[in-house]
Amino acid sequence: MSARILFVCLGNICRSPTAEGVFRQRAAAAGLSLSLIDSAGTASWHVGKAPDARTVKAAAGRGYDLSTLRARQVSVADFNAFDFILAMDEQNLAELQSIQPAQSLAELGLFLDYAEGAVEREVPDPYYGGDQGFQTVLDLIENASDGLIRRLRGIGS
Length: 157
Ligand code: 4NP
Known about the structure:
The protein is of the alpha/beta class and 157 residues long.
Protein backbone atom coordinates (compact mmCIF):
# COMPACT_ATOMS: atom_id res chain seq x y z
CA MET A 1 0.00 0.00 0.00
CA SER A 2 1.26 3.45 -0.86
CA ALA A 3 -0.51 5.95 1.33
CA ARG A 4 -1.90 9.16 -0.10
CA ILE A 5 -1.66 11.95 2.45
CA LEU A 6 -3.30 15.40 2.58
CA PHE A 7 -2.32 17.99 5.20
CA VAL A 8 -4.94 20.61 6.05
CA CYS A 9 -4.90 23.96 7.87
CA LEU A 10 -6.99 27.12 7.55
CA GLY A 11 -5.29 29.22 4.86
CA ASN A 12 -2.89 26.69 3.24
CA ILE A 13 -0.15 29.32 3.35
CA CYS A 14 1.59 28.59 6.69
CA ARG A 15 1.15 25.29 8.52
CA SER A 16 -0.07 22.76 5.93
CA PRO A 17 2.40 23.75 3.18
CA THR A 18 5.11 23.42 5.83
CA ALA A 19 3.81 19.94 6.64
CA GLU A 20 3.69 19.03 2.95
CA GLY A 21 7.26 20.18 2.25
CA VAL A 22 8.82 18.86 5.46
CA PHE A 23 7.07 15.50 5.28
CA ARG A 24 7.85 15.04 1.57
CA GLN A 25 11.56 15.68 2.12
CA ARG A 26 11.89 13.57 5.28
CA ALA A 27 9.87 10.69 3.80
CA ALA A 28 12.11 10.69 0.72
CA ALA A 29 15.24 10.78 2.90
CA ALA A 30 13.85 7.82 4.84
CA GLY A 31 13.36 5.90 1.59
CA LEU A 32 9.58 5.85 1.87
CA SER A 33 7.86 5.99 -1.49
CA LEU A 34 4.48 7.66 -1.34
CA SER A 35 2.17 8.14 -4.28
CA LEU A 36 0.66 11.46 -3.24
CA ILE A 37 1.48 14.17 -0.69
CA ASP A 38 -0.46 17.43 -0.83
CA SER A 39 -1.90 20.21 1.31
CA ALA A 40 -5.03 22.35 1.31
CA GLY A 41 -6.89 24.93 3.40
CA THR A 42 -10.43 24.82 4.71
CA ALA A 43 -10.72 28.54 3.80
CA SER A 44 -10.50 29.97 0.28
CA TRP A 45 -8.90 33.38 1.02
CA HIS A 46 -5.42 32.56 -0.28
CA VAL A 47 -6.19 30.19 -3.18
CA GLY A 48 -3.48 30.34 -5.86
CA LYS A 49 -0.96 32.11 -3.62
CA ALA A 50 2.51 30.95 -2.64
CA PRO A 51 3.05 30.22 1.06
CA ASP A 52 3.48 33.21 3.40
CA ALA A 53 6.95 34.77 2.97
CA ARG A 54 7.75 34.16 6.66
CA THR A 55 6.86 30.48 6.25
CA VAL A 56 9.04 30.12 3.13
CA LYS A 57 11.96 31.85 4.88
CA ALA A 58 11.76 29.82 8.09
CA ALA A 59 11.52 26.55 6.13
CA ALA A 60 14.44 27.52 3.87
CA GLY A 61 16.51 28.06 7.00
CA ARG A 62 16.14 24.33 7.69
CA GLY A 63 16.66 23.25 4.08
CA TYR A 64 13.05 22.91 2.89
CA ASP A 65 11.96 24.65 -0.32
CA LEU A 66 8.27 25.63 -0.15
CA SER A 67 8.47 28.38 -2.78
CA THR A 68 6.79 26.43 -5.60
CA LEU A 69 3.71 25.41 -3.58
CA ARG A 70 0.37 27.12 -4.26
CA ALA A 71 -2.64 27.32 -1.98
CA ARG A 72 -5.88 25.53 -2.73
CA GLN A 73 -9.07 24.86 -0.82
CA VAL A 74 -9.99 21.37 0.34
CA SER A 75 -12.76 19.80 -1.76
CA VAL A 76 -15.21 16.94 -1.40
CA ALA A 77 -13.21 15.01 -4.04
CA ASP A 78 -10.25 14.97 -1.62
CA PHE A 79 -12.10 12.53 0.62
CA ASN A 80 -11.77 9.84 -2.05
CA ALA A 81 -8.38 10.91 -3.40
CA PHE A 82 -6.51 10.55 -0.07
CA ASP A 83 -6.13 7.79 2.53
CA PHE A 84 -5.10 10.11 5.37
CA ILE A 85 -6.35 13.68 5.83
CA LEU A 86 -4.44 15.23 8.70
CA ALA A 87 -5.51 18.53 10.23
CA MET A 88 -3.23 20.99 12.00
CA ASP A 89 -5.79 21.83 14.69
CA GLU A 90 -9.15 20.87 16.16
CA GLN A 91 -11.06 23.59 14.35
CA ASN A 92 -9.94 22.38 10.94
CA LEU A 93 -10.49 18.73 11.91
CA ALA A 94 -14.08 19.59 12.90
CA GLU A 95 -14.58 21.36 9.57
CA LEU A 96 -13.28 18.32 7.67
CA GLN A 97 -15.53 15.98 9.65
CA SER A 98 -18.52 18.16 8.83
CA ILE A 99 -17.94 17.89 5.05
CA GLN A 100 -16.69 14.27 4.82
CA PRO A 101 -19.04 12.34 2.49
CA ALA A 102 -20.65 9.29 4.09
CA GLN A 103 -18.95 6.81 1.73
CA SER A 104 -15.44 8.29 2.14
CA LEU A 105 -12.91 5.85 3.59
CA ALA A 106 -10.28 8.54 4.27
CA GLU A 107 -8.90 8.45 7.80
CA LEU A 108 -9.20 11.88 9.42
CA GLY A 109 -7.06 12.94 12.36
CA LEU A 110 -4.76 15.46 13.97
CA PHE A 111 -1.25 15.48 12.51
CA LEU A 112 0.37 15.98 15.92
CA ASP A 113 -1.14 12.71 17.16
CA TYR A 114 1.75 11.10 15.24
CA ALA A 115 4.38 13.17 17.09
CA GLU A 116 6.31 11.20 19.66
CA GLY A 117 6.32 12.64 23.16
CA ALA A 118 4.39 15.74 22.15
CA VAL A 119 2.01 17.21 24.67
CA GLU A 120 0.55 19.58 22.10
CA ARG A 121 -2.21 18.24 19.88
CA GLU A 122 -2.48 21.35 17.70
CA VAL A 123 0.03 23.24 15.53
CA PRO A 124 -0.54 26.86 16.66
CA ASP A 125 -1.52 29.30 13.92
CA PRO A 126 1.58 31.53 13.39
CA TYR A 127 -0.09 34.01 11.04
CA TYR A 128 -0.65 36.90 13.45
CA GLY A 129 2.42 36.30 15.63
CA GLY A 130 6.18 36.79 15.47
CA ASP A 131 9.06 34.82 13.98
CA GLN A 132 9.28 32.36 16.87
CA GLY A 133 5.86 31.01 15.94
CA PHE A 134 7.20 29.83 12.58
CA GLN A 135 10.06 27.99 14.30
CA THR A 136 7.58 26.32 16.64
CA VAL A 137 5.53 25.22 13.62
CA LEU A 138 8.66 23.63 12.12
CA ASP A 139 9.65 21.91 15.39
CA LEU A 140 6.20 20.34 15.79
CA ILE A 141 5.91 19.36 12.14
CA GLU A 142 9.38 17.78 11.95
CA ASN A 143 8.55 15.66 15.00
CA ALA A 144 5.13 14.60 13.70
CA SER A 145 6.58 13.85 10.24
CA ASP A 146 9.10 11.42 11.72
CA GLY A 147 6.36 9.77 13.77
CA LEU A 148 4.13 9.41 10.71
CA ILE A 149 7.03 7.93 8.71
CA ARG A 150 7.56 5.33 11.45
CA ARG A 151 3.85 4.55 11.49
CA LEU A 152 3.66 4.14 7.70
CA ARG A 153 6.68 1.85 7.75
CA GLY A 154 4.85 -0.18 10.38
CA ILE A 155 1.92 -0.71 8.04
CA GLY A 156 4.24 -1.51 5.14
CA SER A 157 3.57 1.54 3.01
P1 4NP B 1 -2.48 28.68 8.03
O1 4NP B 1 -2.36 30.15 8.64
O2 4NP B 1 -3.88 28.21 8.34
O3 4NP B 1 -1.45 27.94 8.79
O4 4NP B 1 -2.19 28.80 6.55
C1 4NP B 1 -3.25 31.18 8.34
C2 4NP B 1 -3.11 31.89 7.18
C3 4NP B 1 -3.95 32.94 6.90
C4 4NP B 1 -4.93 33.29 7.80
C5 4NP B 1 -5.09 32.57 8.97
C6 4NP B 1 -4.24 31.52 9.25
N1 4NP B 1 -5.77 34.38 7.52
O5 4NP B 1 -6.56 34.77 8.41
O6 4NP B 1 -5.71 34.96 6.41
